[in-house]
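DATA SHEET
Item: assembly model
Revision: 1
Owner: S.N.
Input lines:
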Amino acid sequence: MDKTKEKEQAILKAARERFAQFGFNKSTMDEIASDVELGKASLYYYFPAKEDLFRAVIHHEQDEFVKAIEKILNQNITASKKLFLYVENRLEFFEELLNLGTLNVHSFSNTKSIYKSLFENFHYQELKLIQIIINEGKRKGEFKKHFLQIYRN
Amino acid sequence: MDKTKEKEQAILKAARERFAQFGFNKSTMDEIASDVELGKASLYYYFPAKEDLFRAVIHHEQDEFVKAIEKILNQNITASKKLFLYVENRLEFFEELLNLGTLNVHSFSNTKSIYKSLFENFHYQELKLIQIIINEGKRKGEFKKHFLQIYRN
Amino acid sequence: MDKTKEKEQAILKAARERFAQFGFNKSTMDEIASDVELGKASLYYYFPAKEDLFRAVIHHEQDEFVKAIEKILNQNITASKKLFLYVENRLEFFEELLNLGTLNVHSFSNTKSIYKSLFENFHYQELKLIQIIINEGKRKGEFKKHFLQIYRN
Amino acid sequence: MDKTKEKEQAILKAARERFAQFGFNKSTMDEIASDVELGKASLYYYFPAKEDLFRAVIHHEQDEFVKAIEKILNQNITASKKLFLYVENRLEFFEELLNLGTLNVHSFSNTKSIYKSLFENFHYQELKLIQIIINEGKRKGEFKKHFLQIYRN
DNA sequence: TATGAATGAGCCTTCATTCAT
DNA sequence: CATGAATGAAGGCTCATTCAT
C-alpha cells in the first residue's frame, strides 16, 4: 500500500475514533489532524470536507459490517443461526452508527438526501445478504417457501 | 396559568422540538427565540443558559414518561401486561432522548456528572415504579416470590 | 429625610461599594439593584443612567473629601501641619478614585469632557481650601509672602 | 525576524496601545485586530484568548522595565543615584500598569492568582536588581552595612 | 504533499436601557 | 413608585474552509 493510502487509512481511523467518542459536531478537524500528526490544512488534501471524512468513516463501517456478515454466511451452521447472528450484528452496527453521531447530523448540505447518499448502496448489499440466507434456509427446508419475500414492491 | 408560565411553556415546547429535530448543538438560541417570537436576549430572561433550557426539556420528558407509567399502573390489567407496557414505553422514551441529543452532549460543563445531574432523581422514580409492578405481580401470584429483588445492596 | 431621599442614599451606598470592589464596568445595574432590594428597572427611576449613578458616587466622594479638609482647617494646628494633612488626605482620595474605576472610564458618552464634568467644580473648591491654608500660613508668618500664587493664569 | 514573530509583535504593540488608552475591558479583540489589519479570528491564531494577549502585554512591559533598570545599573553613577533612578522608574512603571487596566481586571479566571501568575517571576527579578544596587552601595561605602536586608527569611 | 496563516460566519452570553402596567 | 418583561448591540470565542507557498 502506498504512502498516500496509508495516511488516508490513518486519518480514517483517527476520525472514526473521534466521532465515536465525541460525535460528529464535537470532533474538530484540528483534533483529527493532530491525532495523525498532520496540519489541519493537510487533512483537506485527503478529504475536501469534514462531511466527506464522515461519509468515508460510515462507508468503512458498512464495509466492515458486510464483511462480518459474509464471514457468517460461509460458516457451517444452520440458516436460522445465520439469521440470528445477522440480527445480532445488525443491532451492534446500529449502535455504532448512533455513537458516530449519524443520527444527529441532520445538518448536512442537502438534508433530505443524507440518508439516501449514505445508505443507498449499503441497503442493496444488505438485502442481498439476507436474501442469500433466506434462500439457503428454504433450500435446506428450514424455512417455508413463502417465509419472506424481498423485492416485492 | 399566568403569562410568564405560559411563555416558559412555549419556550420549552419550541426548544423540545428544535432539539428533537436538530439535536442540542445544532439548535441555536436564536432559532428557539424566533419560534416563540422573542428576541434571543429575552430567552435568557427565562433560562439563564442554553444548558439550563436543555435540562428543563429533559426533565419535562422524564416527567411525561413517569406520568405515562403511572397511568399504566392504574389500569385494570395484569402485572405482566404492565411490565410489558413499561418496557415498551421505556424504549420509546430512550429513542426520544437520542433524538434530543442527550447522548451527544459530551460537552457539558462537568462532563462526568451530566448523567448524574440529569438522571439521578429520575432513576430513583423509575425504580419505585418497577418495584410497584413487581410487588403487585407477586401479590397476585403472577410472579414467583423471588422474581426480582431491587434494592438488594 | 423622606423615603425617596433615603432610597437614593441607599442606592448610592450600594453603588459606591460595588464600584470600589469591582470597578465601574464590572458592576452591573442588576447587582446594585439587588443590593438595595429593588428591581433593576426601579434604579432607573432614581438614576436615569448608569453614568449618572457613577457621577453621583464620585461627587459624594468629593463632598466627603471637602468636608474632611474643612474639619482639618478648623483644627488648632499650624498651617504647615494643615498642608501636610491636606496632602495626605488628597493621596488617599486619589487612591479611592482609582478603585472606583474613575480612570478606566474612558468610555463615557463624550470622552473629552468627563474629566471636566466630574471635577470642574471640585477643583474650584479644592483651590479655595488650599488658598485658605496658605493665607493662614502667610498671616501667621509660617510661609513667606510669595510662597505660592494660585490663580495666576 | 520571521514574519510570524513580526505579526506577533505588531499585535502586541496594538494591544498595548489599546489597553493603555482604554483599559482591558474596553478594548475589544475586534479593534485590536483592525489595528493590525487582521480579522478578529486571526488574532486567536496568535493568542488563544484575550487574557493571554493581556498577559503577554504585561510581561512585555515588565521586560522593558527590567531592561531599563539594567541599563541604569551599568551607568557610572553612585549607588544612591541608581536607587533614586530605580524608584523613579518604578513609579512610572506602576502608572503604566494602572493605565493598562491591570488593577481593574478583577474578572480573570481565577481571581486570586492573577497577581501571582502575572508578577511572580517579575518580583524575583526586581529583588535581584535592588540587591545588586544595595550591595554596590555597601561595597563603595555609600550605604551602611546594615542598610537593608533582603532575603532575611 | 504539506502547511502556516487567515477568515467569514456563527454561536452563546451579557448588559444597559426601555416601557407598559 | 415599582417592576416584569423585552431587546439591541456588542463581545469573546470556535471552526470549517481556503490559499499561497
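QC remark: Residues 114-139 of chain D form the longest helix (26 residues).
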